[in-house]
Structures are given as C-alpha cells and as structure tokens.
Amino acid sequence: MREILTAEQMRAHERAAIEGGAVTGLELMERAGAGVVEAIFARWPDLATTGAVILCGPGNNGGDGYVIARLLSARGWNVSCFAYGDPARLPPDAKANHDRWAATGAVLRWDDAAIEDRIDTLQDGLVIDALFGTGLTRAMPEDTAKTWRAIYPRRFSNPSGPRPRFVAVDIPSGISSDSGRNLDGAFPADLTVSFHRAKCGHYLDPDMGPDRPGGGATMSGEVVVADIGLPQTGVKDAAQLIERPSNFLMKRTGHKYSHGHALVLAGGTGKGGAARLAARAALRIGAGLVTLACPQSALAENAAQLTAVMLTPLPDGYSLRGMLADARLNALCLGPGLGQARAQEMVPAALWGKRATVLDADALTAFRDDPETLFAQLHEGCVITPHPGEFRALFPNLADALVDPARPAYSKLDATREAAARAGCTVLLKGPDTVIATPEGRAALHSATGAHAAPWLATAGAGDVLAGLIAGLLARGFSPFDAACSAAWLHAAAARSFGPGLIAEDLPEELPKILRALDL
Predict the structure, then answer these.
(1) First-residue to last-residue Cα distance in the chain
(2) Is 455 exposed, middle or buried (0-12, 13-18, 19+ CB in 10 A)?
(3) What is the SS3 assignment for 166?
(4) Is 41 exposed, middle or buried (0-12, 13-18, 19+ CB in 10 A)?
(5) Interval 207-265: pLDDT, tens
(6) pLDDT tens by residue, 8-42
(7) CA neighbours closer than 13 Å in the CB half-sphere of residue 452
(8) What is this structure's pTM?
(9) Where on the phi/psi map is residue 463: left (φ > 0), alpha (ψ -120 to 50), or beta?
C-alpha cells in the first residue's frame, strides 16, 4: 500500500521542507512543471510537435502551467497560454514563472469563447489544465463553462480518435482533492500528473447526481505521480491506497485447524444461497474448515449443494453460545440471507463470544431502527461491511455529510473513519471506491475505477462473497483491517479476471487463478 494525501497534508509536507531549507518553492515549481512534461511524453511518446493550449490559474497551479509553457516552447511547440485572473496578483513563485514565460511568449487574457474556439481547432496536441489544482472548494466559475463545453464531450465521446489530449496538473480543476467530489463544471483529463503523492480525490468517485457526471476517479484519467524532491518520510494519518495483497496470503505448513475454522450462519428454507456463497469464499481463501449453521428445516437443502463445507443445525441464539464453547471456531460470518428476525437473535449471541466476526446485510439492517444497540455490543475483532444504503441507515448524519454542499472536502474516508470510531470496530464501506477504517483512524482505499474497474460486481451475491472472504482471512489469523483490505482487492481482481457474464458463484472459483498470478 502507498500513501494518498489530503490537500492540507500535502501543503504541510511542502511547507516543512521549505521552512527546513531542504528546497525552495521555486525549485519545487520547476520540478513540478518538468515532471508534467516528462509524464506527457512517457504517456504519448509518438505525440507530434504541434499546438498546446495551457490554462493557467491565479495560484501556484498556474505557476506550474507557466513552467510547462516554457519547457514545451523550448521543444518547438506552438503554445497558447491563457491566464485566469490578474497575473500581477499571483503568489511570488508563480509570478516569477509567469514573468519568465512572458519574456519569451505571450500571456493571453482569459477569454472563455476564444479558448473554446482554439480547442475546437486542435485535432491533436495538448490542452493542459493548470487552473485551480487542489485548492478549489467551490463550483467552477461561470466564465469557464465554454471551455468545459470544448473539453468534456471530446474526452468522453471520442477517447482514441483525432482530438487533443487533456492533461491535468495535480488534479482536474473542479474536483475536490480531498473528497473526489465534482464541485460542478470539472474539467476531465486523459492524464493527471500529481506531485510527491497522489491525492485522495484521485481515487474517490462520489455520485453527486446526473448534473455532476463523474467524480475524481472518473475525471482524472490515468494518474501519474512525479517526484519533486520532497522528503519521502511518511505523513502522519495519511490514508493508504490498496494496490495488491502482501505475501502473507500464502498458507503456511500445518493441518486444517492451524488455518482456522469459520462459522457462517444461514437463514431458513429457500434462503441459504447467500450464506453458501460466503462459506464457499471463506473456504477458497484458505480457512482450514468452514461450517454452515442453519435451521434444521434447511439442512437438506444446503446439504444438496455443499460438499467441502460442513453443516450443523442451529436453532437459536442459546445454541450458538453453546457452540462457541469450542475455541477452535475462531471466526464468524453473519448476515447473508440470515433474515432480520433471526439476525436480531443471533448477532448478540455471536458478539457475546468475542470471536473475530463479520457482520453484513441482514445482520446490519436488523438494527437500522436502533443502531446504538448494535454499536454497544461490537468489539475490536469485528468488521461491518455496509453498502451505502446500509451505511445511511446506521450512520445517517455521516451519510448526509457526504452530500452536504457546505462541506465539499468531506470524504468517504472521513465518514468511514468516523463510523469506525462510533461503532468501535473496523468498517468497510462498499462501492467502486471501497474504504476501510479502524476505530483508531487508520484508513485504506481500494479503487475499482478507471483501468481497474470491475463493473461486473454489480450482481446479486457479490457482497456475500466479500463477507466470506473477510471471514476466511479472519479465521486464518489476519487482523480485521488486513482481512478487509486484502478481501476488497481480491474481490475486485477476481471480477476483472472473469469479466463479462460474471455471477457471484464465479468469484470463489476465480480465486486460485488470482492467487497463482500473485506469485506469492
């Protein structure tokens, strides 16, 4: 995993380096501009020398744009550089680079209609967005609407045909670098070049409705991080981006009980499919044993469809407490197909046992009218896995904050961290941008967007498989946080590997291929 930063974390890291004398702001700006140019030609090595439109904003992001203009011009490019705002009011470093460019090339005043016309005439070349970067917290100004109109349809309606390539400096203008929200009127990019670390908003993709199509993950395109010479020390409280599991997924030598025994609770007759999916996933990911516990009336139905997964009757919560006298049962999964009435009885009994526990689906919705009752029973060995609707039922004020126009920087990372602190356990908030957080504030993001998208996961039962993967890893001794992070990655990787036509039953069967490919 690698760090992803908020705008304030990045500013603080830069400020510390400058105040400590390690680097100057001018040096950082020069390196940033050079990093963008290098990334452009690495991404499109055959890009012909032609025209570039560079949109320079009123802050340091605009200063990066003036560096890029100078460097492209030195390569023989015909550069049109448009300045938003009064260049005389630029911050000192940006003003210095504006003046360097102005000594050799023209700085054109901002003219939305003229920019639209100029982009319309570009059949290839570049449009570089160095307008607002990470600092914007409000909707794009009205006098950028025609520029948006020239960029947006070309970016999405003709992805590989004759058109300019769109490049964002640090983050697409109009996207919150903390939350990924489209603040309204954001410019999309084919390539986004960030500095030192990627930002949270590059990988978050909140759905703000049809009037704001696409959040940060959609609008950023390919994200490249340029090294600008800042210290590579870790940033306190930084979230982590989940990129692949570590080699701790490999099973060690031993017998079945040395790899744990997961217990998956099922509902009544005709309701066992979801729990069977979870049980199969727990077994595939390496739990030594998996038992499915269901009402007596559902035993025959489940027995007809299970072989390696064991079965046991479980009539009530009192019986579950008795089962937990066996210390070898070290991980539980409750919720998939459990039924809300059965969940209300079984969840307290399961939590009483203080085992590593995954609560999903019915195990969460059963407490939607009184979530505090659930939170009072949860413990640090638990993982709860709500989808957005379940999250809203359990944490309504946090769900509201995620769409509050007065809090544009409030992110899914923030909400999940707060939820974990309130619940007292690890929370996995599902979505194409899945966030995992612990009560102590540790957070990670798995982004199944862009080139890593897994749209086939929008199918019945996929969430049940994810719950089973987490339970299986918990049985093997993974911490709740590590189990949730690894499961989220494996879940999406299996979907991408299988591809179109995926149904939930395919996910556990695809796992061996994924694990072999990891070469652990």
Answers:
(1) 16
(2) middle
(3) strand
(4) exposed
(5) 777 777 789 999 999 999 999 999 999 999 999 999 988 655 666 666 666 789 999 99
(6) 999 999 999 999 999 999 999 999 999 999 999 99
(7) 22
(8) 0.95
(9) alpha
